[in-house]
Amino acid sequence: MMKFGRNMGVLVREGSITLVEVHYSGGKTKVRRAAELAFPTGDAAQSAQAIRQFLQEYKFSARRCVVALEGRFLVAMEKLLPPDAVDEVVNILNLAAEREFGTDREHLTFDYLGPWTTAKGTAVQLVAVSSPVLEQIVTALRGAGLQVTAVTSIGPALSGITLTSPEEKAVLLRITDNGSEIILKDGERIVLVRWLPVIINEEEISTSLNLLCGEIRRACTAFPDGDAQSVWIWEKDGNENLLHEISSRLALPVKRWEIPNVNFVQDSASGISDSRTAAVLAWTARRGTLSNDFLHSRLAAPPKQFITRPMLWTVAAAVVVFAVLIFWRAGLYKNHSRILAMQNQLEIMKPAVQTAKELVARVEMARGWYDRRPPTLECLRELTLAFPENGLVWLTSLTFGEDLLGVCAGRADDEQSILELLDKLRAGKAFSQIKPQYLRQGGTGSSGSVSFAFSFRFEPGGEQ
Amino acid sequence: MIFSKRERYIFMATIVVVAILLLDRFVVTPLFEQSGAAQQQLASLSHTLESEQLLLQRQHQMSQKWDAMRASGLEMDAATAESQLLHIYRQWSSEAGLTLISLKPVRPNEGKYLREVILQASSTGSMKAVSRFLWLAETAKTPVRIKQLQLGSRKDGADDLSLTVTLSTLYVAQETTPAKELAMKTKTQEP
Known about the structure:
The complex is a heterodimer of chains A (464) and B (191). With 464 residues, chain A is of the alpha/beta class. Helix content of chain A is 36%, strand content 31%. Chain A has helices at residues 44-57, 89-101, 131-143, 154-160, 205-220, 240-250, 275-287, 309-366, 376-386, 415-427, and strands at 6-13, 16-25, 28-38, 64-69, 75-81, 108-118, 121-130, 147-153, 169-176, 179-186, 189-196, 230-234, 254-256, 264-266, 393-401, 405-412, 431-441, 450-458. Chain A is rod-shaped, with a radius of gyration of 57 Å. In chain B, helix 1 (5-71) crosses helix 4 (179-189) and helix 2 (78-96) packs antiparallel against helix 3 (127-138).
């Protein structure tokens, strides 16, 4: 629904268009500008240029417009759908259009009016206009700088806002200079839309009215029981005599076809043919109550989606995977950079490190001649403490090397004392790897009858 | 060729599986391998860098220690070192009360930067003299160490011992980088 402050109604007739600019403010609807233009001939660019100049000349300022085509451009036929087929309206009507129009279907743009529920099922009016004509009009208007919001048909558009009674079988007749448009309404339902090429000629008014009324009677056969109850006439001149003549010929009450509750303030629309029609069209479009829109047809195939949902998911997944891989690769690149930086740093440090290593190696080696000498005295002390004080066992020789391995040889009065000594040494932590080498009798004299030898390893820091 | 819905699903699943396999074969697995290798290399380099930085930090301390060693009698040639060792041995023996029997200096000529001069000495004396000698050898400020010690009793029941000792001292055969210079370098590198 258009909610802006101004818009344009463009009524397209044979050979001419009527443009009306309507302003909406303070609850009032004002027709500010109205003009009629002979539809430019030539290609679309030339037409657009002509319309643009025309709009500038008449100082039209609105850019949004709704276009209505006269009944002569329209083909309409009623279609009855099976009950409960409302959801399948589009498919059924597309099939019907294909069946009815065959190859011509390609050159037509379809839409439908309705649907309406009837006793026989769901009824719709399948309507169509020539696609080339539609395209020519829309292209020319767009080329002129207008924003075409909708393209509809004027008769159904006006009938949609006409307050006929719910049960009334009405004939809506829009009389123009070059023909009449008839719409049969059964309550809300449009039964028939037809263009009557009957021109009301003032000089032969009786003949032309007879002709028109004959056409109306024939059209009324489209009503289920063939009878109409009233005639509503849309006519520009307010000719009461004309209404009376038609009423007397049809023997039906005739009403002036007015749009209720609409009070147009006519600023500059006087004398312009069908300016009121175009103004009502603009007002209807603003209300959002257009009966149909060929520009956004409900029967048109939905625009093909170039990006389908699975495609979108695939692309999203691919993007995520790609991002993860990029992130991963960036991390790897960062690590490689760090590795290179470290390698460079190590390379720079290499001479200094080599020198430092040599220095450390020298100092470490030399410490064996300073603070890390073999603890010979400590070894002798621990051995001395291990030997019993009663003098039953004593050493005769001791060898001790820088590898902390030593050999002791000695004598004892008995084997028991030697074994006790060895056990004591083993029990302590100062010596390890204690291995007896020999233990034999054969000593000389009264004491030291048993000689022995054992090897050991001194453990600095250990205590008996 | 028109595929049924089922065939289309199978085809798409096949494409997806093949794509995943190819991605794994040519992208994911190589990336995993490269990532693992890089992490390993990074850890190794980090450890090396850390240890070498620690080494450089220790360099100043070691340099000072080396200077102290040099000042305490670490000689620069074999003859001086040998002379110093003979002199020291005689001095210690005399101070401890040992009777010197024999002396035999040896120069093994092993080692690149630091080399040893060895002295094999035999002497006799009491337990107290031996202990005193050993204490002097172990607490000396000059670079001397006892490589081997042989202690034997000469007579049963008497405080008369024979001591055969192999002493060693060090001398500097080749000074690669002057320690002082190194210390200066280290100092200038420190912030």
